[in-house]
Amino acid sequence: MIKVHNLHKSFADNHVLCGIDEHITKGEVVVVIGPSGSGKSTFLRCLNLLEIPTEGEILVDDVKINDPKTDINEIRQKMGMVFQHFNLFPHLTVKENITLAPVKLKKMTKEQADQKALELLKIVGLEEKADSYPAQLSGGQKQRIAIARSLAMEPEIMLFDEPTSALDPEMVGEVLDVMKNLAKSGMTMVVVTHEMGFAREVGTRLIFMDEGKVIECGDPKEVLSNPQNDRTKLFLSKVL
Amino acid sequence: MFQTLSIQTAFAAWLDTAKFDIERCFIRENRYQLLLDGIGITIKVSIVAALLGLVIGFIIALCNLSKNKVLNGIGKVYTDVIRGTPSVTQLMIIYFVIFATVDIDKWLIASFAFAINSGAYVSEIIRAGILSIDKGQTEAGRSLGLKGWQTMFYIVVPQAVKNIFPALCNEFITLIKETAIVGYVGLMDIQKAGDFIKSATYEAFVPLIATAIIYFVIIKILTLSLGAIEKKLRKADNR
Q1: Which alpha helices (DSSP H) does chain A contain, by range?
Q2: C-alpha distances in Å from residue B131, one per residue of B145, B162, B233
Q3: pLDDT at B103 over 90
Q4: Residue from the list A81, A85, A105 with its beta carbon closest to the beta carbon of B143
Q5: Residue B237: which of A87, A89, A135 has the nearest Cβ?
Q6: Mean pLDDT over all residues of chain A?
Q7: For the purposes of burial, counting CB atoms within 10 Å of the CB of B59, is it exposed (0-12), middle (13-18) or buried (19 or more)?
Q8: pLDDT of B129-188, one tens digit each?
Q9: Is residue B235 pLDDT above 90, yes or no?
Q10: Is A76 within 8 Å of B150 when comparing Cβ atoms?
Q11: Which whole-number Å values give the CA distances from A217 to A18, A91, A214, A238, B28, in the listed order?
């Protein structure tokens, strides 16, 4: 579903990604871990071209997305993204946050989108918040709304950029539960996170990155309990 | 007893003079009509200039924010030239040089001149407003598949408007007062009407104070209504 070949990204003199090759297939839940500055967020942001790769190619359903001729907006409609800082639209109500993109992109009529929004709010357990504004929600609630907003476009792939890192510890669980259910429903997911429990429980594959490279990759339970590479061992000994 | 009487007399005498002055300045020869027409001109010029200035300001702000070097240059030169020259000079150049041979209503030409002037200031306000919106908002919009302009119009601009609203109101108020120079190109606005009455009656106090009061009342009404609009804009901030 996503193929990444020899992906490089530099910011001025700073080489953040140094040649990444990955192949993500349908239904996989790929968890990306690594120390800060390892390039894991940049890697994720390259997948929907929020960062433009300096070198290499990214294919989504066999379409090269970092090609000027590709309509990236169309590709992005198939790829939802959830951000660390939620990035809800503060001037719109929860329901308007969810329905804005599907309606403006003519994917649904206003009525269909409203219907869809209520269904999604039920899934994330926040039906009663439909007419609230983001400022009235807690962090965990905001992130669940952000997930619902991405799902409204009915994406085939969901990207999560440290979705629980900005949350109070007691709110992490409610967001992870939503993500777990999403994974169980068969959604293809790429998740950058520090939640090892999540990786172990629902991840189908774990990628450990450091200094812009993939150091180790494999079954999450395997890698977490029996890391092969020294750097992986060192990192895990600090976070587990 | 004697003293109070003298104050009363003095007051009565003053009242008589005042009545006479007011009659002479406003009633005689229907001079109040000059001021009423002046109010019309000031309001017409201000509203058209403000709306047009908003459009120009938005376009110039987008030029200044764009990555395109040509657009960037145009925006920069525009703001530089307009901010670097007096508005009276700009008004006179536009009226007597650029539109010298064009047959359009005087007040429209003046509006146009003020719009060009106001646009430069408005563009800086709008640019700051757009920059004040977190980059995450744009990223969220784009990640949903919205195009650049859709993200700008549905997500960034509505939030920016709320932030810059007080500054825009300020600019609009400045603009209204700035129009007091249209007398230079022969338009009879409030200021010019007051001035005309002053010359016709050799009485400075009454017409000039009246001019000040009229401007003050117009701007007070505007401030109050804009304040009400701002309250509405802040609705989403309530917790």
Answers
A1: 40-47, 72-77, 94-104, 110-123, 139-151, 169-184, 196-202, 220-225, 230-239
A2: 22, 13, 19
A3: no
A4: A81
A5: A135
A6: 94
A7: middle
A8: 999 999 999 999 999 999 999 999 999 999 999 999 999 999 999 999 999 999 999 999
A9: no
A10: no
A11: 16, 42, 7, 19, 95
Residue positions counted in chain B: 239
Structure tokens at B46: 């201000």
The dihedral through the CA atoms of A223, A229, A235, A238 has a sign that is positive
What's the Rg (C-alpha) of chain B? 24
Which residues in chain B are closer than 8 Å to A80, comparing Cβ atoms?
143-144
CB-CB neighbours of A66 under 10 Å: 18
Helix (H, G, I), strand (E, B) or coil at B129: helix
| A interface residues, B as partner, C-beta within 8 Å | 48, 50, 73-74, 76-77, 79-81, 83, 85, 87-92, 100-101, 104-105, 133-136, 146, 149-150, 153
The encoded tokens of residue A217 equal: 């990759």
Chain B contact set for A48 (CB, 8 A): 143
Per-residue pLDDT, B157: 94
pLDDT at residue A154 is higher than 90: yes
CA distance A66 to chain B (A): 15
DSSP state, residue B145: T
Q: What is the number of alpha carbons within 13 Å of residue B111 lying toward its C-beta?
A: 18
* Structure-block tokens of residue A3: 């193929």
Q: What's this model's pTM, rounded to 2 decimal places? A: 0.83
CB atoms within 10 A of CB A48: 26
Which structure tokens are listed for B89? Answer: 């000079």
Question: How far is residue B189 from each of residues A122, B29, B179, B216, B226, measured CA to CA in Å?
Answer: 61, 18, 8, 15, 23
ipTM higher than the 0.90 cut: yes
Token digits for B217?
């009342």
Task: Find chain A residues with C-beta within 8 A of B151's C-beta.
Answer: none
**Cα–Cα nearest to B25, from B215, B199, B192, B189:** B199
Q: Are A198 and A179 in contact (CB under 8 A)?
A: yes
| φ and ψ of A60, to 5 deg | -115, 120
